Amino acid sequence: MVLEPFEISLVFMTKKVYVLLNFYLIILFFQCSSITQTGSSHNSGESSAFETWAGLQDNTIEPKHKTEMNKSWSVMMERKKQIETFLLAKSYESHHGTVVYPFSGIDVLNLFTFFPLSNRYILFGLEDPGYPFDWDSKSESEKKTALLGISALSSHLAGRNYFTYRKMKEETKKPALSGAYPVFVAFLRRLGKNVIESKQEIISGPNLTYKGFTLVLYDSTLKRKQTFTYFKIFLTGKEGVPGDGITEYFNSLGKISIFTKSAEYLFHGERRSLFRTLLLSNAVQVVQDDSGFPIRLFPEAEWSRKLYGRYEKSWKLSGAVDPEYQADMILLNAESKNEPLPFPFGYGVLGSKTASQSLILVFNRKN
Q: Pseudo-torsion of CA 211, 216, 222, 223, nearest 10°?
């Protein structure tokens, strides 16, 4: 077959385009590889620091840190098994999408116990993010202070299964820690999560900016990635209005689960009702103790309601919001006729120093 001049020209152009296309694909490949290898991915030095924070390897800075972390995490992992065994017996199932933990502090232990298979975790509390955190630039005395702070918070959580704001502020405000990031990483590593990437997060509004970070985790047992985000958010009561930035962020999450405990009854009363409504409007499941959302917000026509453990009263805490009187909780408790929880959960241990009044509430939205 003989090609006409026009056809010869077309073949030449086609080959030229093909060569150029391959050239650009090669350039794009190297650019993408560069982004993946640098940017927010962590190198071996940072990974070694994470192991030190978690007390998973020996260190010469504070040799007792590993021992103290092993001690407190032995208690916490035993409690985690207790809770898991209990939930399995109750046929408890959690949603696997996005879970939001309001007023979380640095409590990843309970979050991952109740929601182990979620794809995305979003927490907010009053602690500074402390990200980015340059471990190598710290002096030896600063590194020692940081390790002591991490182990102190670990022991604090092991002792009561919740954090007090005073203790978290005392430790995370120290310049050596400068926030929650190292503590979160240490605790996540203890839970078997590898931190493979991180980046700063910002929620911008017309008047306020909320800072935080996102970690990309890899769980070798689950053999998949999960994302973990923390923000410092102080709720004044004005949040939840379109245009404030925070409303758009939480609306963008779509359907969510909510986990909260030891929340100082901050969602009781009407001061934070706008933001409370914002969260619940997208919620399909809520797991909490009595200090979270009032039970009146979960009418039986719209929600299934389960109580595990026992409820007698809510606790009036110094400096916290006064809890609402919850007649429905008293009725639900009477109907449930439950045995006490075999582990502490929330503020129920305050009166008796035992788990006898601890409780878990599980609300699932009806279809």
A: 170
